[in-house]
């Protein structure tokens, strides 16, 4: 699609230049006209991409995952790799939330993390790790990706939910001591998290809160420490309700 648009654009410029030269318009004037048209084309193209991306993110937030995937696929076709990595990543997020984990892995494998910025690469590794944990496969690979996402220092607040995925994994393995330490670490990391700003990502706090409360609820049920962690769930009606309604909310 990108190549077709570029071909059409240059064909239009050629026709305009030929027509102007045929009526003996000065070369300097022809160049000014062509330059002006080029600038207008770039501005319109950038505006289209920006608006289409915003629509795709809105579809993603409202749970219309198939529509979001279609939107991001079209945007992806406008750019050549690796310049289309953001639209490809957004498509992977939509597949992840939809529950199509195989498609998520396939899309993430099409992104070269070495070409990503240092500030965005952790989000790529985090999404990959979440997907493998949810899929119940390649836990060693998920551990490796988690380490790459979180780094050696303090856990980035925006990636704190990855601790709960690891907590879920620990609960399934009946490693409750580790699960308890991860819950405590998560509770400490998320303090004042919403004050954090991200230049590249627009965070869906409603989805993040529901998901995190589900994972916390699952972990707390396994740890049998309701009173100890009750304050974490004060913003939600009940842990049991969250557990039973999460699939419905995620697919609505």
List the keywords.
elongated; mainly alpha; Serine Threonine Protein Phosphatase 5, Tetratricopeptide repeat; 252 residues
Describe the overall structure.
The chain is an all-alpha fold and about 250 residues long. It has a domain at about 1-110: Serine Threonine Protein Phosphatase 5, Tetratricopeptide repeat (Alpha Horseshoe), CATH 1.25.40. About 70% of the residues lie in helices and about 0% in strands. The chain is built from eleven helices and no strands. The protein has helices at about 1-20, 25-60, 65-75, 85-100, 100-110, 120-135, 140-150, 160-170, 175-190, 205-225, 240-250. Helix 2 (about 25-60) packs antiparallel against helix 3. The protein is elongated and about 85 Å long. About 25% of the residues are buried. Residues about 225-250 have low confidence and may be disordered.
Round the Cα radius of gyration to an integer and report it.
24 Å
Order of helices and strands: HHHHHHHHHHH
Q: How would you characterize the largest beta sheet?
A: none
CATH structural fold name of the domain at 1-109 = Serine Threonine Protein Phosphatase 5, Tetratricopeptide repeat
Number of strands: 0
Short description:
It is built from eleven helices and no strands. The protein is mainly α.
Blueprint (SSEs and pairs):
Layout: H1 2-22, H2 27-61, H3 65-76, H4 85-98, H5 101-109, H6 121-135, H7 139-150, H8 161-172, H9 176-189, H10 205-223, H11 239-251
Helix pairs in contact: 1-2, 2-3, 3-4, 4-5, 5-6, 6-7, 6-8, 8-9, 8-10, 9-10, 10-11
């Amino acid at each position: 699609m990108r190549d077709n648009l570029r071909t059409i654009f240059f064909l239009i410029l050629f026709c305009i230049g030929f027509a102007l030269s045929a009526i003996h318009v000065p070369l300097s004037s022809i160049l000014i006209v062509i330059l002006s048209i080029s600038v207008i084309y770039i501005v319109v193209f950038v505006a289209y991409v920006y608006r289409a991306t915003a629509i795709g993110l809105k579809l993603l937030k409202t749970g219309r995952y198939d529509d979001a995937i279609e939107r991001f696929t079209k945007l992806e076709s406008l750019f050549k790799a690796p310049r289309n990595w953001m639209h490809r990543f957004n498509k992977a997020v939509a597949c992840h939330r939809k529950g199509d984990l195989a498609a998520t892995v396939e899309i993430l494998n099409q992104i070269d993390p070495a070409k990503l910025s240092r500030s965005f690469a952790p989000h790529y590794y985090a999404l990959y790790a979440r997907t493998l944990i949810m899929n119940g496969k390649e836990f060693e690979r998920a551990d490796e990706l988690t380490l790459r996402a979180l780094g050696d220092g303090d856990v980035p607040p925006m990636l704190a939910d990855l601790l709960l995925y690891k907590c879920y994994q620990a609960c399934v393995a009946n490693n409750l001591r580790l699960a308890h330490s991860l819950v405590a670490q998560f509770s400490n990391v998320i303090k004042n998290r919403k004050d954090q700003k991200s230049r590249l990502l627009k965070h869906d706090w409603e989805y993040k809160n529901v998901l995190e409360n589900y994972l916390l609820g699952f972990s707390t049920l396994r740890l049998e420490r309701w009173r100890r962690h009750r304050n974490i769930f004060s913003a939600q009606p009940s842990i049991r309700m969250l557990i039973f309604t999460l699939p419905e909310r995620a697919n609505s």
